Amino acid sequence: MNTNRKLLYKIVQLLCVVILGIVLFNIFQLVEIIQGTGRVINYTGIIRGGTQRLVKLETNGIPKDDLMLYLDGILDELQTGQGQYDLDKLDDIPYLEKLSELNDYWDAMQAEILIYRGDPGNQGKVIQMSESYFNMANDVVGTAEFYLEQKTKILTTLELVMVILLGLLIVIALQQAMTEIQLLRKNKELATAAYYDKPTGLPGRLSCEEKIWPPMDRKEGPFGMVMFDLNNLKCINDSYGHSAGDVLIKAFADILNHLTNENVFVGRYGGDEFIMIVKNHREEQIEQLLTEIELATIRYNQKSDQLKIQYAVGYEYGGDSLPQMLEKADEKMYANKTAIKADTNEF
Asked: Which CATH superfamily, name and number, covers 202-343?
């Protein structure tokens, strides 16, 4: 289920990224179009105002050929998209049609202005044409503004799509992050459980292994290895339930745990097996520790009205390696268990 969910997340993420890339590409293009359209509108307004200024000067006897050439250049660049003013040719048929009509009318008006220079009798016609030209230029500006408005709406829609896609990617990323956090937490719990025995509060099997297998530091020696095994635990579990057996395991673990310090390590090695690794101790001191454990066990059994702690023990002192010492301590512990069974009746 988790694998399928991860695969689904990856597919959705990939689709979102692809679509987002397409959207961003179109947004960049639209921004350029909108910027170019803004320049087109501005220069169309220049044509509109410039023509009015031209007619005013011409009718006052001031020829302005340079202004005519300037307006010619703008009109030509608006239609072709090529020239010195960095103007775009808008990809809009209504606009281009109106612009073409404006250009044709401009040619006719220029012809009338040239006639006026030689014969001022057509002044009224020139002024009338300039007014018509002004209105036509207004229509061109309006068409370009409508084109700009449409592109702006598309841009707004694409920006909304982009926000939605980014939001979806963020949600997926957060979900994945939460899943990873939960996974890390579970892995940490598993690792903790492997190194720490929760029922007894002692180090677990992996912690014991990490203590046993590294080479011994002779400066910390001599070393002793002690192996404990609770007796009759299976019978207790079968007769009274595992909870009863767990009580005895926890009680014995508490007895051992009270003896731990920087030189004494105690861990739960198996179900009912415990080890004690002792360093920087003489053999007499190890035997004293075992006596303390025995006395603490007797005190517990005296206070307990029901089940009693019974255990077998074996230890090895001053060996060459902890694994070797563990093996010998285990043999001695089983020998002790056999002797106890021989001397007492089974539970």
From this structure: Reverse transcriptase/Diguanylate cyclase domain (3.30.70.270)
